[in-house]
Write a structure and sequence with these properties.
The protein is mainly beta and 180 residues long. Helices cover 6% and strands 36% of the residues. Strands 7, 8, 9, 11, 12, 14 and 16 form a seven-stranded mixed sheet that branches. The protein has a four-stranded parallel sheet with strand order 1-3-5-6. It starts with a strand and ends in a 5-residue tail after the last strand.
Length: 180
């Protein structure tokens, strides 16, 4: 076993669940709340050489709780950045970007979402518009969505009273409740 993915719903890991896994190099744990563990849930020698990939908001918690803190390296699965006035959550594993709510909540005029964005020398494909990404942006008048986007989240453009034009490409397969 060289890699394991632990879903975001996992709350606990039993004793010796990953014991005798000396070749374990990468553990992807999507749980924002650090799962509790029984004694020796991981092979101590194995995790001393492994990388733990966790949600961005939870990195510091994983660094303070055993046995998670014993991993050689703990890195964020995603990072939030602002690029050209649009906020994105960048997933370092999939190299995908999601448009997320701007901290100021304002997008005046026309917005053209790019097919990809670059951050720290890596390109990320913009694949979704997250929940409430443009919520209550009354100054927003027009939005062009690229072919790379496949989903528009819950209330993504809700209460955008100035919005008069939206271009949605054929690539979009999912539009969330109250999106507009």
């Amino acid at each position: 076993l060289t890699s394991v993915t632990i879903g975001n719903g996992v709350e606990s890991i039993g004793a010796e669940a990953f014991c005798d896994c000396p070749e374990l190099h990468d553990v992807y744990c999507y749980a924002e709340n650090v799962p509790s563990t029984q004694s020796d849930a991981f092979d101590a020698e194995g995790i001393a050489n492994a990388t733990l990939h966790v949600p961005n908001a939870s990195v510091e918690r994983y660094r303070t709780i055993e046995p998670w803190s014993s991993f050689r390296t703990i890195v964020a699965i995603s990072t939030e950045v602002e690029i050209n006035g649009i906020n994105y959550e960048l997933n370092g594993e999939t190299k995908q970007a999601t448009v997320i709510k701007n901290s100021s909540g304002e997008f005046p005029g026309e917005v053209v979402i790019p097919e990809s964005v670059e951050h720290d020398g890596s390109a990320y494909s913009v694949t979704s518009i997250g929940e409430q990404a443009f919520w209550n942006c009354s100054g927003l008048t027009s939005v062009t969505i690229p072919n790379s986007v496949t989903s528009i989240g819950f209330q993504a453009f809700w209460k955008c009273s100035g919005l008069t034009s939206v271009t949605i490409p054929n690539s979009v397969t999912s539009i969330g409740e109250q999106a507009f």
